[in-house]
Amino acid sequence: MARPNKDGLDYFPLDIDFSTNAKTEAIMGEFGAKGVLFMIYLLSAVYRKGYYLQWDKLQQMQLVNRVNGLSPEMTDQIVARLVAYGTFDKELFSSVRVLTSQRIQDTYLDATKRRKQPKPTLYWINVNNNSSSEGVNVDINPQSKGKKSKVNKSNKNPSRPKRDKPVYDENSDYLKLAEFLFEKIQDNDPQAKKPNLQHWADDMRKLVELDKRDKHEVSVIIKWCQQDPFWSTNILSAAKLRKQFTMLALQKKNEGKTRQSKVTRKETLPDWADHNQQCSNDKQKDLTDDQKAKLAEQLAELNKTEVKGDA
């Protein structure tokens, strides 16, 4: 007996900056922590089904019972906000109360690309994804006679949509890091040509998400390297910054240690000078008060004698 097709996913990716995402912070500000927890439960329900969720009373009450202090009215409000924010497709929700999005469907396609099952069509936003065709393309039919046509081998899976490159808005931390780097480059070279900041922002994302570098650390290294005589002439793009980041971080750290050692270093005397100074101090410490007074009297008498001789 053949194994039945599996619709849903076992897990789904959650962005590393989920907690600081503008949509998450908006839900947190209006509904509190229970609103954010509901968001996670809602996304889990979508991916458990596959790539969409029919938002009805049954689904609503199931999720309400999972979050303490949540009410059905509040879940409706949160869903309405997420639709307005673009987390879910507005047209599908308004027409058939289905929760899905282009990003959710792309994630589902990527996770199920090894499954041997037809591509989904129900509530599918990108209609070109449907791999089934009512007609037969005779140009690629192996049984057709005549001259063979050339097939574009670069597109081996025409049913799968081409994934667009991410676009970073003006509030994106990655775009801000890219702009900060270009600003510091311009401080050294006002005539520097403005690059594609979207490409630079994507390199910044890779530096943070893939290379596990802290955003604040990245900004500190950007400022430091553009003040360094050597690195300011070599780090002229976000890609180069990412490539050399480990070396930059180590060199900055070692430079800090060198400066600290210079500040705290004490000047030392030669051994012989230190020894003579110590002996002199020790001799002065050995005299008693009476001996010091007697020595002072002797010096006074000696001065009187020298005065008389001069006269």
Automatic annotation (TrEMBL):
Pfam families: Lin1244_N. Residues 134-168, 252-291 are annotated as: Disordered. Residues 11-104 form the Lin1244/Lin1753-like N-terminal domain. It comes from the Bacteria. InterPro entries: Lin1244/Lin1753-like_N (IPR025400). Residues 134-144 have a biased composition (Low complexity). Residues 252-274, 282-291 have a biased composition (Basic and acidic residues). Residues 145-163 have a biased composition (Basic residues). This is Lin1244/Lin1753-like N-terminal domain-containing protein. It comes from Lentilactobacillus kisonensis DSM 19906 = JCM 15041.
